[in-house]
Design a protein that fits this description.
- The radius of gyration is 17 Å and the shape is globular.
- It has eight helices and 16 strands.
- By secondary structure, it is of the alpha/beta class.
- The strands form five sheets. An eight-stranded mixed sheet has the order 5-10-2-1-13-15-16-14, sandwiched between helices.
- Strand 3 and strand 4 form a beta hairpin.
- The longest helix has 25 residues.
């Protein structure tokens, strides 16, 4: 089983997205797709006069922001990706966590940031873990030849939608399924120099991550991606690779191991 996560910068780039969907459809074996869409969501927020707010790589989600991200992630992005996959002969179904209660979340309590002082209320943001995933349902769909396509919108079982980091969704699903986790985005992997695509770090251990984040080499949105990668491995994922969306079918990228 493979769980592939595709990032928002690719989702918002139509030629790249179409090529990715062709490659994903060609990927052999049972598979699950998790997608972002944050670039598009931020653009629509700005068009509506809202100011996107991210803290330590995670979006602060008030009530109006929740409406926007739900429309973007669970609406256009998920259905557009499913349609592209259907075109390539991949029988995909686009799901939010509330659909058949496939993924539940718990609302995040106010959190102290990495500075140890600042406390942030992220609003309608959910946290998930491997036990949040309805494994029987996911495996049932896969066994029927249906490829689940998950967005970052989940629910708490009490009638509330929650916005969850898509990397967290991917790591939780991979851990629950004991799957290989592949993060695809617009870079060749984790880079020593964010402006040099040839500076791919071939492998990272937890000790490497601590050093690289302290030095500011790994920062912003890459922080939760790496954190979720190691969490996924500890909780049951077979391994984690971070790579360019164009490299889905080859062995390039950064391997994370413990």
């Amino acid at each position: 089983m493979k769980v592939v996560k595709i990032g928002g910068n690719v989702v918002d780039n139509e030629p790249m997205l179409r090529q990715f969907c062709r490659d994903f459809a060609a990927l052999e074996g049972p598979k699950v797709l998790v997608h972002g869409g944050g670039v598009m969501a931020s653009g629509i927020q700005q068009a509506l006069g809202q100011k996107p707010i991210k803290i330590e790589g995670r979006r602060v989600t008030d009530e109006e922001t929740l409406k926007v991200v739900t429309m973007v992630y669970a609406g256009w992005c998920g259905k557009h990706i499913a349609a592209l996959l259907q075109k390539e002969g991949c029988n995909a179904i686009s799901l939010a966590g509330c659909d058949a209660s496939v993924i539940k979340a718990s609302k995040r309590a106010p959190r102290t940031l990495s500075d140890g002082v600042t406390v942030v209320d992220y609003g309608f943001v959910g946290d998930v873990k491997a036990s949040s995933v309805n494994v029987e349902l996911v495996e049932g769909l896969v066994n029927m030849g249906i490829v689940p396509v998950f967005c970052a919108i989940n629910h708490d079982g009490e009638g509330n939608l929650l916005n969850t980091n898509a990397d967290t969704i991917a790591s939780s699903v991979a851990a629950a399924l004991g799957a290989e986790l592949i993060y695809c985005f617009e870079k060749k992997g984790v880079l020593m120099d964010k402006d040099d695509d040839s500076s791919v770090i071939p492998s990272i251990t937890p000790a490497d991550f601590e050093r690289l984040s302290a030095d500011g080499i790994i920062a912003d949105g890459m922080l939760p991606k790496i954190e979720n990668s190691f969490k996924a491995i500890k909780e049951g994922a077979r391994n984690v690779v971070i790579k360019h969306a164009e490299d889905l079918l080859n062995d390039n990228g950064t391997l994370l191991s413990i």
